[in-house]
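Practice problem: predict the structure.
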Amino acid sequence: MPPVTARPEIPASHVVRAAQARLLAHIGEADLDSSRSPTMAGASAPSVLADPTSWPGPSRAPGRPESDERYEFGEAFATGGLGVVRRARDRRLGRDVAVKELLRTDPAAEHRFALEAAITARLQHPGIVPLYDIGRHSTGEPYYCMKLVEGQTLEHQIRQRPRLIDRLALIEHVIAAADAVAYAHRHGVLHRDIKPANILVGELGEAVVIDWGLAKDTTNPGPEPSTDAGSPAGASGVVSTMTEHGTILGTLRYMPPEQARGEAVDARGDVFALGAVLYHVLAGVPPYADVDSRALASRVVEGAVDDLRERAREAPRELVAIAQRAMALRPEDRYASAEAFAEDLRRFLTGRLVDAHRYSAGEVVRLWLRRHRAVVGVAAASLAALAAGGAYAVQNIRHQRDAAETAQLHAEAARGEAEAALVTARRQTNESLLAQARAALDSDLADSLGALARVDLSEETIARRARLLALAAESRGAPTRVLRGHARPVAQVVGLADGSLVSVDLAGDVWQWDPQQGTGARLFDLHEQDVQLVAARDVPAFAAIGARSARTWRDGAAQEIDVGMVDRGMYRALHYRWQMSAGGEALAALGEPSSSHGRPPGPPAYVWDLSQKPAKLDVVPGARGLTAALSPDGRTVAYDDATHAAFIRTGGASSPTPAIAGALEFSSSGQHLVAWAPDQPPRHVAYTPATREVRPLGRWTLAIAPNDRALVLDADDFTGMISLSMRSLATGETLWTGAPVESGNLVEWGPTQEYDVVVDPHGDGLALRTPDAWLLGSQADGDLPRRLDTGDRRHGTYAGDGRFALAHHDDIHVWDAAPPSPSAQGLASLHVGMVSVDGRRGVVYSEKSPPRLRNMFSGTYDDSCVDGLSVEQLLDREARAAVGGSGRVLFVDKAGKACLSDAAGRHAFAVAPGITSAALADAGTALTAGFGDGAVLTWRDVDAAPRKWELGAEVVALAVTRGGDGVVAHTRTGKVFALTDRADKPLEIAAVDPGPQSSFYRPPQTVLHPHAAVAVVPLPGQDAIAVHDFASGATARHALTLPAVPTAAYSPSGATLAVAVAGRRVLLLQGGDEPGRELALPDEARGLAFVGEDELAVLGATGALLRVDTRIGEAAVIRRGWTPPLDGFVAQTRTVLATDEGGTTLAFQEADFTVTVQPAESVPRDPAALATWLQARGRQLGGS
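Answer:
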C-alpha cells in the first residue's frame, strides 16, 4: 500500500452519526429511530435489497459524489465466495479497513452482494464484523468497507495445533461463533456456510464470523438470486454456491444432509455446521476427511460421518457427545438453537453436567468433586478439625479454606498470565527471527541460516515457514562454513597448495585459515593499506606486498623484501601486477597495460630470487611496454618494450621473439605462452618458444588452466553473443565450448582480473563471476550448475579438495565441493531433442553421439528405445516425434513411415504423409497422430487397427491421458476436441481465438490428471479453464483471470490443481464445491510443478525459481536468475517444469530444449530433523 499521509482530524460526532444514517438508508433500514439519525426523517433513498442497481457510486447513481478518493486500496489478502477482500486506508477517518469487492458483475451476483452487505450492516454483534461504508469504484464495481480484524482463521489455528490438548483451547472460539450465529438467528438470518475458514480469530483473542455471502434473510419473503444459468450444477458437475431452494448451497464437509439434498433449511442447519466445526477442532481434520471429492456429495446426503469417538479417542466424552448431537442426521434430534449448543459447551468448560451426555453415577460424583475440589479438600480438613478441636477450630478452618481458595485463584491467574506472556514472547521472537532470516536472503545467506537456527520450531506453521527460508538460503548458495577473525573488511583471500587460506584486510592484517576445520590465526600485520597477496602454486608459500615492503611466508618463516623501487604511484595497480613462481623460488612485479593513463616510465619487470638470503633482485632492462609474464619455475620472463617488440629473458639474457607482440601468461608447464598476435584485429595466440609455433586461441584469454589449457572468450561477429571455450595450448584444439552468455554477464575481461574467472590449479573447479553471483562448475565440460548469490563480491579463490572461498565483509565464506547432481551429469555437452509430458524422459544427443533415451532425473540411459534413430531424423522439421513417461519413443517422418520403440522392441508401420503432431500415453500402450488435413489416428495398441477422426482443420497439438482413455486435440482454428472410444464423434469442448495470423497460433498447453482420465485446457482470452472428464463426458468451466502465458499443474495424487492467475498469484482448486484458494507469488508464474502434495515449484517470468508451501500459503525465491527471463519471444515457447519427490527440479525450454537443473534439496521436512539440521548449520556458520 502506498505511504499514508498524516492522520486527518477525526470528524465531529454529529458528522459520524449523519454518515451512519446515510449508510443505513442505502441498505434498506427505513425504520431507524429518528433520535439516532436526525437526517433520516423523510429519507427516500432506494434500498439496495429492493434494487441492486441502487448501490451508490458514479456508474449507478451519477448524482452522488462518492468516489474511490476516500480510500487508498492495498493488496488483497482473502477471497470469499462472492468477492475478494483487500486492505485499505480510510483517509477521511484515518483508519485501516477491510474492503470487499465483487468478483463478478452480473445482476444475480450483484444482488447477492447487496444482500450480504445489508445483512452484515443489520447484524450489530461483537462476534460479527461491523460494516462501515458502501460504494462503487470509478469503473462501476461495487464494494463495501468493514472493520479490519488482524488475525488468522480458526482453520489456520487448528492446523497450527497438531495436539488435541492444544486444540481444546479453541473451544472458546467455537462458543463465540455460536453466540454470533444465535444472535443472527434471533434477527431472522441464517448463515448457511459456517466453517472454520469463516471464523476469524483476532490478535486479541476475539472470534468473529465472516463471509455472509450465502446468508438467507428469513424475514424477506422475496426469492434469492438464482444460479448462473450458463453453468447449471447438474450439467457441469460444478456445485454452485449461489442457488435457489432445490439446489445445493454451502460447503459440503460442514453441510447438513437436508441442505445437500437441496431442501429448505432452518436454524438447525447452522447448528449442524457448528457441530462440524467442533468435530474439526476435536479430530484435527474436517468431517469426511478421507472421502474422495467425487464421492463426497453422496456421503453428505447420507449423513455418513465418520464416528468422532474413533477419530478423537482422547477427546473428552462430553465434547464428543455435544458434536454428535449437533450433527444428528435428523434436524429434530439436534440442538434446537445455537444458544443451546453454546450453553452446553459452557457447561463443559465450567464443570457442569452437559445435556448431550448421559452420565453414570460415578461420572456425576467425579464431576462434582472436580468442580468443587478446593472446597472438598478444605471441607475434609474441617471435618478432621471438628472431631479434634471444636467450634474455634471450625471457624479457623473456614478462614483457611477461604484463604486457600483465594490463593489458588490468584496462583492460577498468575500462572495463566505467565503462560500467556511466555507464548506471546515466543511468538514475537519467532516472528522477529523469521523476518531477519527473510531479509538476510538478499544480503547474507549465512546470517539468514543463523537466524533460523534460533527459531523455536514447536509450532508446525513456524517450522514450515523456517524450512521454506532455509531451503531458499541453501538453494541460493549459503556457504558451508564462515571464517571469522578479522576486525575490518577482508580485501583479498588466496589459497595455498596445502589447502589452507590466507587473507588480508584493509589495514594489512594477515591471517591463515584451515577451511576444513573452520579455524584460523593471525600471522602478522603490515600496518599498510592496499596490501596485495600472491601465492605459489605448488608449495604453501605466499607473499604480502605493501607500498614500501613485502613479506614472504614459507614453512612458518617470514622474509622481508624492500619493494620501494617499484613504481607504486597513484595508478600503481595499473602499472605492475605481482606473481610468485609455482615453487615459491621467485617473486616478480610484472608490467601491466596502462592505456587509461599512458605508459609510465620503468622497466618491464622486477624479479626477486627468494632462494637467496637476502633475496636477490633482477631488474629486466629496457623501457616497459604493455605486458610481462613469469614462467612457473621463475627463471624466464617474457615481455615487450615501448616499441611493442617482444622478448624472452632467461639467465640474464634477452632474445627477441618477432612471432608475438606481447606476452600475457605462461602455461601451467611453462612450455607455452599466451600472447598477443602481431596482426590486426588484436587476438590472443598460443606460442611455443621451443618450436616457435603459433596457434590462434580467440579474442581474449581469461585464465590459465592445469594441463596446459586456457579458458578463452570469443564473440560471434554477427550476433555479438559471447561464448567460453577451453583450448589446448599445445595443439590449439577446442576441448569444449560453453553455452552462449550475455556479454554483460562477465565483468572486466582479461587474465589480469583473476577474480572474475578462477580455476582450481590442483583440481577440476571453475568459477565465473557475474554482476550478482558466482557460478561454479567443471573445467572438464564447462558446465556451471552451481550458483552462489553473493552479490558483487570479487575476491574468490580455490583451496584444497575443491573448496571455494570468498571474502565477505569482515569474514570469509567457504563452500565445500559438491558432487554433481545425477540429473545434471553430462548435460553441458548434450542437446535435448524432445521430452515427455511429465519431463521425466528425454531423447538427447551431442555432436559426437547418436540420440539416447535419458532418465532426466537419474541421469541413466536406456538406448533400446532409440535404436536406429539418427540426429538428422530428430532434427527434421517435417517429421514428428514423441516420448512417453514410461520410455516409449515414436518417430514419424514426413512420408508417413512410422516406428514405435518400447521395451518389447521396434514396431514399424505406415500412416498418411503430412503428420503435424504426435503423442504417447505415459502409461499403457496408447498413441495418437494428427495431420494437416484435420485427421487424427488413435491406437489403443500399435498392433491394433487405429480409429480415425475428422476434425476439419490442421491438428497442431495432441495430448493423451495417462492411461490412454482419452485424447485432447487442438486445431489450427482454435477448436479443442475430446476424443474417446466411448464416443461416436469428436466432442468440441472449447474454442480459443487463434488470432489474426493463425499460422503462428500456439495452442495452450493441456494439463493431464496423473491418474484419472481428466484434462485441463486453459482458455486464454476467455479468462477461464475447461476441465473435461472423459469418463462422464462432462466439461466444467472455471472462471478466473489468466495471465498472458497460462500454466497449470496437478499434485501427484491429483487432489489439487494449481492454476496461475494474473497478478502474480496461483489458484489452488480441490474439486467439489471448494471455491479454491489464491496464494500470492513474488513473480508471474511461467511454469508449475508440485513437490509432494503441499509444495509447489514455480518458474517465474524473471527466470527465478520459486517454492510455495501451499499449507501455509507462503512463497520464497529459491534461485534468482535460474533461467534467462521468460519474456518476449521466449515467453511464447513451451516450458516444461518437472520435479521429483526429492525436490530436484528441471526446466526445459522448447525453443532449443535447454535444460536447467536444481539439485535435490538437503533441508529436512520433519520439524525435529529440521531443528537438528539448523542447529548443525548454525554451528558451522558461527566460526570458532
